[in-house]
Specification:
Elements lengths: L3 H14 L15 H4 L11 E10 L2 E10 L6 E5 L7 H12 L3 E5 L20 H11 L4 H16 L11 E6 L2 H11 L4 E7 L22 E7 H6 L3 H12 L3 E6 L15 H18 L2
Parallel strand pairs: 3-4, 3-5, 5-6, 6-7, 7-8
Antiparallel strand pairs: 1-2, 2-4
Helix pairs in contact: 5-6
Length: 293
């Protein structure tokens, strides 16, 4: 999704996948509490603190939502949202991850267009007018902006020693369009990023010269790729290319096709699959436990 043709490919991908329709939670959508009620809470959950900050980037000022344990220092995780951007569902997911002992930073990827909320609730990628709204903000994101934004956010995280354990590796996760963001983050900050996870990521393997998979040799991170069943049907060779690329680079990568539809992880997705989302979540926690040291 770096150039115009790539954006169109992403649009076609989302439309064919049948994923991108958000649930209507009514007034509850104004708060992450509605989605926290859907997500299981760990028995060992720690008390967390939330804050919202503004981070300077070369293109402006980005809002970043932060959750971190209320006491002590924790490894950082940079979360890249899907095509609908930063919203209550991702705040709920951020809080849940922080309760596991991580300092979670989730930016508004569309800060160049507007402050949160950037997109209204209930948009459907299959509807032309809705798709046009989403594509308009998606068009502000390129391979170059992914790199400069990651630089700004990783640099900011490095200054938060009051609650971030900067001596430990950081992680990054991405959903849908955020999948490639994780790969560019991991490649351009190889000495900082120890683990990364892509959930139903789109555009990870392309025939373009800036395909994210070509960056693997620059990485040092262990990886988790949770692939949607319908995505795999659309591009059945992608998982094989990823496996061969990571093996050649001698990097650990767990690559699995899940029996779920594109977009199954966020709890506000129409295709949210709790069982498979929990499996993907547990694999991410297992990765972070061993790699963010």
């Amino acid at each position: 999704m770096c150039e115009e043709h790539s954006l169109e490919d992403m649009a076609n991908h989302l439309r064919k996948s049948g994923e991108m329709t958000r649930r209507h939670f009514g007034a509850m959508s104004a708060s992450a509490a509605a989605f926290l009620a859907v997500l299981p809470r760990a028995a060992h959950a720690v008390e967390v603190t939330e804050k919202n900050v503004e981070v300077k980037t070369p293109d402006g000022t980005a809002e970043v939502n932060i959750f971190h344990p209320a006491s002590g220092k924790a490894p950082a995780v940079l979360v890249w949202p899907d095509a609908f951007g930063l919203r209550p569902a991702f705040k709920a997911m951020g809080k849940r991850l922080a309760e596991e002992g991580y300092a979670v930073f989730t930016p508004n990827p569309y800060y160049r267009s507007a402050k949160v909320p950037v997109l209204p609730e209930g948009l459907d990628f299959a509807k032309p007018d809705d798709r046009a709204q989403i594509m308009k903000v998606m068009s502000t994101l390129t391979a170059a902006t992914q790199v400069t934004d990651a630089q700004a956010f990783v640099s900011y995280i490095g200054t938060q020693g009051a609650f971030v354990d900067t001596a430990k590796k950081m992680g990054t996760t991405g959903y849908c369009m955020g999948g490639p963001f994780t790969m560019r983050t991991a490649a351009n900050h190889a000495d900082r990023v120890g683990a990364a996870a892509s959930f139903h990521g789109g555009g990870l393997v392309t025939d373009q010269s800036d395909s994210p998979h070509l960056l693997v040799p620059k990485m040092k991170a262990s990886y988790l790729f949770c692939v949607a069943e319908n995505d795999d049907k659309q591009q059945p060779t992608a998982k094989t290319v990823l496996r061969e690329t990571f093996d050649k680079a001698r990097l650990k990568a767990e690559i699995e096709v899940y029996p779920a539809q594109h977009g199954w992880c966020p709890p506000d997705a129409a295709v949210y699959d709790k069982a498979q989302a929990e499996k993907a979540w547990s694999r991410m926690l297992a990765l972070f436990k061993t790699a963010l040291v």
